[in-house]
Write a structure and sequence with these properties.
Elements (H helix, E strand, L loop, with lengths): L1 H23 L79 E4 L4 H13 L7 E5 L5 E5 L5 H13 L6 E2 L9 E6 L2 H14 L5 E4 L6 E5 L5 H9 L8 E2 L4
Antiparallel strand pairs: 1-7, 1-8, 2-7, 3-5, 3-6, 4-5
């Protein structure tokens, strides 16, 4: 029995020693198997198509060479544009800015006498009544009237004269800076007041006038497009003393 156990032990020790020798014994290096992956074809079973190998999984035999940087351009230096200003060249002189066309002129307030002076100056400058307009802040800022008189008797005489000519649209002014004047109508436009005054003058009212009503606000003189720029610039520099306006504020 002891001999049998000793024999088995010896066999086990021998097998263990042989296994260890095979594991740590130096093995010759085998050359890797060389094959062309792009020439492999997988044969499928009858009735089942062979799987396809994705082209992206196969390495290219001839990889594209990397592009070399342009030798004419230094790294970090931007290219020079062809239209850049050459060194030492003088920049082109600035073009003169044309003077802007006066859009309109304004006065803080106007009365009939000042309006008459403005119209006379415009006429002498060759600008007719159809080429301009005067705008007022007050909606019904224009009126036709007979100037104030000193006494109530004079006012009654004006009323009688107007009635005798068949005019019914009138009203005496009872207070204010135009007290004892006789109003002959209020209008929204200068052209309307001018026309009504001309009609009453034809009837025989020699003392009739037209102009802005009291407290009518800022007056703006505007021009039509037919007035040339040259005429407007000449007008701006040629206003009579005491009549010179300001340029209207730009919107």
């Amino acid at each position: 029995m002891n001999r049998l156990l000793g024999l088995l032990l010896a066999i086990n020790v021998g097998v263990f020693a042989a296994g260890m020798a095979l594991q740590y014994w130096p093995q010759p290096v085998r050359a890797p198997v060389v094959f062309n992956a792009d020439k492999i074809r997988l044969l499928g079973i009858a009735g089942i198509p062979a799987p396809r190998i994705a082209a992206a999984s196969l390495e290219s035999k001839n990889p594209e060479p990397e592009l070399e940087p342009d030798a004419t351009t230094e790294p970090g230096v931007p290219p020079v544009e062809s239209d850049s200003v050459e060194a030492g060249a003088k920049p082109a002189p600035d073009k003169p800015v044309a003077e802007s066309r006066p859009q309109c002129f304004s006065w803080s307030r106007l009365d009939a006498d000042t309006l008459n002076a403005i119209q006379t100056h415009l006429k002498r400058s060759g600008i007719g009544v159809d080429a301009y307009d005067v705008e007022l802040e007050k909606k019904l800022g224009w009126w036709v009237f007979m100037p104030p008189v000193e006494t109530q008797a004079d006012l009654r005489a004006n009323v009688d004269e107007v009635r005798s000519l068949g005019v019914t649209d009138f009203a005496p002014v009872r207070s204010g800076s135009m007290q004892n004047a006789l109003s002959l109508g209020a209008f929204a436009k200068l052209a309307q007041a001018r026309k009504r005054a001309a009609e009453l003058s034809k009837l025989g009212l020699s003392a009739v006038k037209f102009g802005p009503r009291p407290e009518s606000g800022v007056a703006r003189l505007v021009f039509s497009s037919q007035v040339p720029d040259k005429a407007l610039h000449a007008l701006e520099s040629g206003w009579p003393k005491g009549l010179k306006p300001a340029r209207c504020a730009q919107p």
